[in-house]
Structures are given as structure tokens and as C-alpha cells.
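Homework help thread (please don't just give me the answer)

Our assignment gives two proteins as sequence + C-alpha cell strings and asks us to describe the second one. The first is just a warm-up. Here they are:
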Amino acid sequence: MSGRANAPAAQDAIDADSISETIRQALHFGSVRPSRDERAAVDEILRGHVRLLLGDVRAATERQRHSFEAEQLRKRMDRIEQHLNHPFGQGLLTADAEVHQRARDCQWLLAHHTARVGW
């Protein structure tokens, strides 16, 4: 695992390349066997990315009209936010599942952020 990805501070700008690298590392865990500590470290970085992206995407969604799509986005973001409150799993299978889910959540949020910025 590289030490390239760092947990973002609240004031940091969204660095899509860094976030993508962290997502790649987390999803790569299915083909390698990192230690629980390595998984936990990547999970913590992902949590920071998710918090940062969640705030950005939620703010953009709030500016949209009350449409079906906006409501679906809000529901998904609520589920992602609830998942942030769960502690990191103690078992390796649970930890793997949580890191992968958090990576997918982060990937989804990054896609929405990137699509909005690209408009």
C-alpha cells in the first residue's frame, strides 16, 4: 500500500486524483491481503473523503428543485451518512466489506461531484 493518500482536512479542496487513488487502493484489497491496520487506515482516509464529498454533493443537491432525482440523491446520501457512523469491523470479512462499501460510496459521490463540476 502506498502512503500517497492522506486524510483530507475539512478546509481542503476536493482532490479527485487523490480520492481516486484511495478508492483504487481500497478496491484492490480484494486481490491482496493487507493487515487489519492497513485496512483501518484506508477506511479512515475514505471516511474523510466521503465527508468532504458528501458535504459538496449535498449542498449542490439542495440547490436543485424538488425533483424525483434530487429526492433519490438525498436518500442515497442519507444512507452513506448513516454508514459513516458505523464503527470499523473487527473481523477481516466485515472489515473488507465495509472498506469496499465505503470505497463504492466514495466513488459514487466523486462521480456526482465531477459531473457537477464539469457542467
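The one we have to describe:
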Amino acid sequence: MRRLCELLSIHYPFVQGGMGNISSPILASAVSEAGGLGTIGTGTLSVDEVESLLLEMKKRTKKAFALNIPISVTSNLKGMCELAVRHSVPVVSLSAGNPSPYIPYFKEHHMKVICVTASVKHARKAELAGADLIVGEGFEAAGINSPLELTTMTLIPQLVANVKIPVVAAGGVGDSKGFAAALALGAEGVQMGTRLIATKESPYHERYVKKLLEATDTGTVIVGRSVGKVRRVLKTAYADQLIHAEGTGIHPEDFEAMTDEEKHLIGAVEGRLEDGFINGGQISGLVKSIPTVQELFTEMIEGAEQIYENLIKEMNDRYLKK
């Protein structure tokens, strides 16, 4: 954990996931101010739109933060990379595509580079290209997912065994137990998205937050398998529409139109759950409170510490003192 925190200039080993077009400097700055790494996602936004978010972010915090650039969906990739450099963004997170051609550019400007991967093969390539750390994202995660469908539990230890740079676990983590489990698997920190939706600093629609708090263990669903666009969302009326459309053999372009970032904004920001979707990871069923980001981080650190103390005591009492 210390290696990760020193690398990113943060206090706690917690990274905010990129939230694309619904990225908010309000939430991201709260994450950074609480000691984690807040993140602004570029999604399909224009360079000018992202620049406005960065300017607000820099007004709200002087602490480290990241810019997530999803390579395959960013409309002006060159312009977005140049924007990150122009604003001296401390950390760039690259996802949804091959990061190798872009890593040297950011390294030349002394920026830290995170690569989000879902396989050992891709993690190795990112490390060879100069990545500073790997986020291993399991199939439990919200939003766009890898078609490989590896779970966090199986992915993380394999990544740790195959790369020398720090590995951060993403997907299915949102409390002290998940954090402790990720550390046991060899991760040096965790990335969270869904859990941060239900925090006091969250700027998202109350219907989104309510739906998250009401979610059960089966409260999310995968859509898009039939068209090669795997995405995990919360179960809503609009999710039912997506499932029905797939069942009738929807064309990939039509499905993409039904799941574009505008539809996400409609659900997450406007709260129109009949007309737009809301992302949600499998951690949703465990989210039952709305703490501040600082309270969440403190609970996760203290809770994980207590878990390990209890485990050590039980191991000593039950096995090592016989």
C-alpha cells in the first residue's frame, strides 16, 4: 500500500473509477480531499467540455487526481492527451483500448500512467510499455466490461504474479471486507465507482442513489453480450428494454445508440429510469448507507485493520498454539 500511495501522492490506497460523461469535479475532488485519487473521466465529451471539468477540479482541490481516457470511445484522442499535458494532470488512467502507443507521451511529461486491464496478457504489455500501475478490473464491475469475464477474485492474484508494478483491484469492492480481501489477493489498493455513488458528496439523481440502496445480490444485470458490448447495469425499466431488444436480435449499431453516454446521463443525472440506464456493479447489494467520502475511507481502513487483527488472533488461537 505504501508503494502505491507514494507513487500517486495520496494518503489512502483508494482510486476512483472513471465515470465517463457523468464525471463530477464535486465527487472527484471529495475523493482527493479525503486522501484518495479522484478521477475525471473523458467519456465521449469534447476537449472543451473536459477542460471545463479540469478547471473546476483544480479550483476545488490542490491534491493529486487522475484523468481517465477510454481510448476506443474518446472522439478526439490526440486532443485529449494534449489537454492532460497542458493542464499538468498528475495521473492519467488509460482504459478501453491498447495503451502502449500513448504511454511514452505521458512519461515524457513526467506523468504517472495507470492502465486498466482485464487479463494477464494485457497487463504484461502495459508494464513493458512503461505503465506505472495496473488496475485489474473484474467482471463484477459496473459499466463497460471485458468480454473475458474474469472475476476479481481470480484476476488479481494472477496479475500480481505476473507484473512487478503495483496492482489495484477493481470490481466488487466497496467496504472494509472487500478491501481486506483485495489486499489478501496481493493488490496494493482498490478502485471504486459504484460505492461512491451513495456518498453525501455524490451529485447524482436521488432516484439513482435510491435504486442503489435498494439493490439486492441480484440487483444488477449484464446487457450487450449478443452484440459484443458487455455492460453491467442496475435493473430498471430501461434495462428491461435493453434485454428485450437483445432478445429480438437488435443490430449492434442500434444497441450502441440505446447505451450511449447520453442515455447514461438521462438515467444517472436526470433520474429518468424509464428512458436511460444507470451503471451498477455487483457491490450494489452491499451498499446500504450514505456516508461522506471521508467516512467511507476511514471505515474501510479501520475495518480492514480490525479484520486482519481478528484473523491473526484466531489463527494463533486455533492453529499455532496447539
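TA reply:
I won't write it for you, but here's a hint about the kind of observation we're looking for: The CA atoms of residues 17 and 193 lie 5 Å apart.
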